[in-house]
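3.2 Worked example (two chains)
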Amino acid sequence: MTRFALTLEFDGTPFMGLQRQAHGPSVQQAVEEAVERVTGEQAIMHAAGRTDSGVHALGMRVHIDVAKDIAPFRLMEALNHHLRPDPVAVLDCVEKPDDWHARFSCTGRSYLYRIANRRAPLTLDANRAWLVPQPLDAEAMHRAAQALVGRHDFTTFRSVHCQAQSPVKTLDLLSVERVGEEVHIRAAARSFLHHQVRSMVGCLALVGLGRWREEQVAEALAARERSALGLNAPSAGLYFVRALYPDE
């Protein structure tokens, strides 16, 4: 068996999420079915992270084990052929040692959240950004965000369906900047809680709209109560950007 690490780009709009779901299509299902068509084998795809319905990826790392003797480039090309018309693309494919694991070997994950801050409805970016027509103060959002950086109990920003054993996480980066008509929020950490990024973005948006004081983000964090959350941002603006590994 050969372990292949794949880098995936996908539009999460038509999927119920990355992981296989009994009630609808998933990225995992699309990739595993493509692998079977290429190799004749039923491989299981393991991913660096989990994404919900509607969440996108620019560089999700996954791995599969394949018995067929096939070169990485040929496997990538064949998978891209068989993934059509699903909006999933294999950007890279390399061989890895048997003890390399897309999830458990990962030492860092980063996300981007895009807010389209304009009056006009979205056309080209429909389902790929969160449309907020009212003006946002990106600088105030960035200042408020710094209260969340570091090691904290993120219970307030955690989904009630989160399966993590502990709500304590270390957030390495949370930045907010305006890029033309968009506001970009970037987050990086070793790992995240379910809905953590979307929950943080929702509260920061309230600051940007002037509905929350900057200090309220820190107050929500200190409350350690989901009821203290102001807003959970929609999935459409969220992108898994990259996964980090010590051997790369």
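3.2.1 Second chain
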Amino acid sequence: MPPVFAHGALRLYLLALLEEGPKHGYDVIRDLSGRFGGTYSPSAGTVYPRLAKLEEEGLVATTTDGRRTIYSLTDAGLAELESRRGELQEVEHDISASVRRLADELRGDIRANMKGLRADLAATAEAARGASRRMPDSGSQSPANHRLLKETEMMLQSFRDDLQVELRAHAGRQQLTELTVETVRTVLDQAQIAIRATLKR
């Protein structure tokens, strides 16, 4: 996969993030990940050395908050950022292109995984049908059938409720993005296709 940031672009983008205000290192990583809609999360080993280099160059200053280090933009850092606004726009454009590329790769992975899941579900459904053919037919409204129907309905309801809680928690932590919504839609569409195919057999 091509690098997410071109040479020197991450350095410039870190200055842009710190222009928003002082941040802990973790906040810098989280905000950077947020710019990519969760498709890319830089490692601490990528971000902290670059922040240290910016401090060494006098573009970033640090203070401590307990055991955490807070990074803030210096006047020199702001001056460099101002002088490179044009480059920053190019970085933003490259990030948008990277998000689209990563999203396409993610969707491809999801579709491949769901294809495998559909095959597994089909095999499981075939095995279940074989087992049911060997059992005496007690009618579609048998107590066992009714119990399994209720159990499956409860499973679907629990799935919906759990995901709704996760979705609201995510939205409370950070802004929802079009990419997040599209990814959820793709996964749910593929899951629905797989389940419908199983139920029609």
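3.3 Remarks
Helices lie at 9-19, 25-35, 44-56, 75-83, 85-134, 143-173, 178-200.
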